[in-house]
Amino acid sequence: MTQEYENVYINDTAIISGPYEAKGPLSSYFDKSYNDLYFGSKSWEDAEIKMLGECIDILLQKTKKKINSIDALISGDLLNQIVSSSFNAAKLNIPFIGIYAACSTSTLGLLIAANMIEVGQVKNIITSVSSHNCTSEKQFRQPVEYGGPKPKTATFTVTGAASALLSSKKSKIRIISSTLGSVVDAGIKDAFNMGAVMAPAAAKTIYNHLINTKTKASDYDLILTGDLGRYGKDILKDYMEKEYGIELNNLDDSACMIYDIDSQDVYAGGSGPACIPLVTYGYILDKMKKGKLKKVLMVATGSLHSQVTVNLKKSIPAVSHAICLEANL
Amino acid sequence: MEINKYNVLVKKHTPKENILLNGLISFIVGGFMGVLGEVLVELYAYFLHIPTKEASTFMIITLVFFGCFFTALGFFDNLVKFARCGLIVPITGFAHAMMSAALEYKREGFVTGLGSNMFKLAGSVILFGVVSAYAFGLLRIIIMGG
């Protein structure tokens, strides 16, 4: 399902990162970075809640808006019952939509927000996501201090929070269209190879977006996937050619950009809902504002498994949602 | 695309793990751990004037202590990542698994957190360790008569 928009703009964004991301190549684009993983909190869960709250605060400061002028908050994260988002919504006391689409939560949030603004249901809306390396390790993998080896295809969950304010007030970044993805189960059961799990979902969403908007892959300056990792990116390119006959020459993947994957110990790259917005809201939007990129397709991908379904040896379904951004200079 | 075809495509782009190198590192580090254990046994037996059997219990306690201590200090996971089975298979791996789970869950309360989750990784080692000890003990009685 593809939707086109006339009057939806990203007015401003705010991003906070953890220590590993701050050592990566994009650190200068973050509004704030922490040097440790606790941020002065007692537990990692508290730390993630605090980080997301601060991120929304920074966005409000940057846009000089008061919280009561925001009509709604759309937010999601990886924790069970999306507690990081819900607990912050409890503090902010504004209408709240909690969403879960694993690592594709960011584009799903932008998509819902854009729809609501286009029809005039809301004026100002904030959409945010967060993920924390240690809370995710604890919930989806093994205790953080456990050093059991992982395969090269494993990914490293990004610690970060990102939020964006959307409205119909003109700004340099316009959202021109979106595609809501369907869930694809490619039959992969390995939770340590999420690139392979998610590549077919990304391919399907990209294909549907191109068909529905009558555009070609080469019409975009950049097609940016979420967190396929360095091997998943190759799988997507290959799969796209074989399945749909489309060559993706302008493809890049946030998982490979957020860290210096050759020198940092992050396996195949970053992952998590914060991965693609940390790259896009800072680095990519900056390039768009400077006129270096005109049209960017953000294709976040999410792997919809839980630890229980992995233990039950069920194959992992994946989903991908796309947002098309255009520079409005 | 059919699952089989997709699996072939995935396999083409999936990097191979370096089994030989990993095995060699594990072999050397694991062997070194064995030597260290033996040295400790001899030292305990010599200086404390105790039989070798008791000294090996002291050796196990020492290795478990350092496995836990280094895990708590936060750098043992990096050593394990490098040495892999060289540190996981010896008793240090067991200590590491217990301690990392304990550290992870202690904030969720002593009973509901630490108590219920400490054996998350090491629980199966204990269970199947006891079961296989029982099975092999039984075999030993049947074949060798005790």
Notes on the structure:
The complex is a heterodimer of chains A (329) and B (146). With 329 residues, chain A is α/β, with parallel strands linked by helices. Chain A is 35% helix and 24% strand. Chain A has helices at 19-22, 44-63, 83-92, 105-118, 133-140, 194-212, 229-244, 254-257, 275-289, 307-311; strands spanning 2-4, 9-17, 32-33, 72-77, 96-98, 124-131, 156-157, 160-167, 173-179, 184-185, 222-225, 251-253, 270-271, 295-303, 317-327. In chain A, strands 1, 2, 3, 4, 5, 6, 8, 9, 10, 11, 12, 14 and 15 form a 13-stranded mixed beta sheet that branches. A two-stranded parallel sheet of chain A has the order 7-13. In chain A, helix 6 crosses helix 7. Chain B has one domain (16-144). Chain B has helices spanning 3-13, 19-47, 52-73, 76-83, 85-88, 91-105, 110-117, 123-144. In chain B, helix 6 (91-105) packs antiparallel against helix 7. Chain B is extended, with a radius of gyration of 20 Å.
For the structure shown, list the relevant keywords.
heterodimer, A: 329 residues, alpha/beta, Peroxisomal Thiolase, Chain A, domain 1, 13-stranded mixed β-sheet, two-stranded parallel ribbon, 15 strands, globular, B: 146 residues, mainly alpha, 8 helices, 0% strand, extended
Q: Into which percent range does the helicity of residues of chain A fall?
A: 25-40%
Number of DSSP E strands of chain A: 15
Task: Tell me the name of the CATH homologous superfamily of the largest domain in chain A.
Answer: Stage V sporulation protein AD
Question: Class by helix and strand content of chain A?
Answer: alpha/beta
Largest pleated sheet of chain B: none
The share of residues in extended strands of chain B comes to under 5%
End-to-end C-alpha gap of chain B: 59 Å
CATH class of the largest domain in chain A: Alpha Beta
Number of domains of chain A: 2
